[in-house]
Amino acid sequence: MMLFNRINRKYQIIIAIVIIAVAATIEFLSIKNGKHEIRNIVLISIDTCRADYLSCYGYPQETTPNIDAFARNATLFKNVVSPVPITLPAHSTMLTGTIPPFHGVHNNSFFKLAPSNQTLPEILKQNGFNTSAIVSAFVLDKRFGLAQGFDTYHDTFKKIKYNTFGNERNGDETTQAALDWLDKNKDNRSFLMLHYYDPHADYAPPEPFASKFADNLYAGEIAFTDHCIGRFIQKLKNLQMYDSTLLIIAGDHGEMLGEHGEKEHTFFIYESAIKVPLIVKLPGQKKASTVTQPVGLVDIVPTVCSILNIDIPARVHGKDISELLHGKVPDAYERYIYSESMTPTSYGANSLMSISTEKWKFIQSKRPELYDITTDTREEHNLVEKEPHRIRILRDKLRETLERAVLKDPDSQFKLDPESIRRLQSLGYVAGKEDGEIAFDDSKDDPKDLIHIFV
């Protein structure tokens, strides 16, 4: 009798597992097949947002109660890689599904997104969506090419943050523009890219966030941005748009905050600068899920296309990760995700390029670096001498990635006028023209030796 009960319980467990799997599959297929209609797509981009400063990613103080609540009915990706710690090229990747060596944008200065690139708003526009963007800093001004495919591109500011010479607006104004957009588009089939710049230096959150986070104003800026996003999500719900919206919240890059000698970002490509949040909610999704497999911002375009049953462009480097949204890990899932920084070339140093896997991160430089990022999250123990075979494998993967991706497009480079240079300098950018060279150049200084000049 006891043996019978054991067998019976065993089958009960198996049946329960099958039921759960079938339910998840039905939910996934219902979304893919349109039973949960996707009338709106919203991509919220939080500039300069380290993943580990969101409380849903483990920050010890509650910085993001609204995003936390959103994540309880969404899929949170724990291991997300940005292609570059700079705003314009990171957004270029988010909207094209390609990496910087292909789309040609390596920094906020001297580069623009060339018309030869196919963007997500162009794809969605061709498939019946109205397309709009609301951006919060001059680095994403339409002159830099990111506006292609958008019916409207809101890049003019009324109120400005102090000491930015009209080049940045705070989250209150950005949010009001977004709420007005929702009122006007509540009956349309629309795509909105909503960009918040507040976590970018200088850190000056408004009250009560300035007082609550007086010991860490960067965390205060994250908290203020969360407050703004909470207002936007509530408006979606009030207008009964929330359940028909594919909503994506992502950081474009992180912030070093003094680690490895860098105060802010653009120079190094350590985890603090390129590990970002990514949270995705499908219409009809009611349960939280967490994905630990590595993904990249480069995956946004192919994934959105897949969810909408739109053909994925042939020239993308990202992967369709829609199956991961429901806990389905493809067989032999393995990723090699690219990141770069060309900023050191402005100082006579070699460029930085990296390949990240779930466990390893290789940085190509004059003095190469290898880290086990599962145990050495602060990248303090270089394993190059201990892992020569792994170095060869990852360096070959990096070479292969570059050989497949590099596309020289003369339209991606242009000469900035003096006024544009002044405006970028007011935001802390532009030190000198980068050479944009994609090469393994060991003849120049190692960036690690010049960080004291950069800061």
Structure commentary:
With 455 residues, this protein is α/β, with parallel strands linked by helices. The protein folds into 3 domains: 1-35; 38-326, Alkaline Phosphatase, subunit A; 337-454, Arylsulfatase, C-terminal domain (2-Layer Sandwich). Helix content is 31%, strand content 14%. The protein has helices at residues 2-32, 65-71, 87-96, 100-103, 120-126, 171-185, 209-212, 217-238, 271-274, 300-307, 388-405, 418-426, 451-454; strands at residues 40-46, 75-77, 80-81, 130-134, 152-154, 190-196, 245-251, 278-281, 289-291, 295-296, 337-341, 352-356, 360-364, 369-372. It has an 8-stranded mixed sheet, with helices on both faces. A 4-stranded antiparallel sheet has the order 11-12-13-14, covered by helices on one side. A hairpin with a 4-residue loop joins strand 13 (360-364) and strand 14.
Show the helix and strand layout.
Elements: H1 2-32, E1 40-46, H2 65-71, E2 75-77, E3 80-81, H3 87-96, H4 100-103, H5 120-126, E4 130-134, E5 152-154, H6 171-185, E6 190-196, H7 209-212, H8 217-238, E7 245-251, H9 271-274, E8 278-281, E9 289-291, E10 295-296, H10 300-307, E11 337-341, E12 352-356, E13 360-364, E14 369-372, H11 388-405, H12 418-426, H13 451-454
Parallel strand pairs: 1-6, 1-7, 2-9, 3-10, 4-5, 4-6
Antiparallel strand pairs: 2-8, 7-8, 11-12, 12-13, 13-14
Helix pairs in contact: 6-8
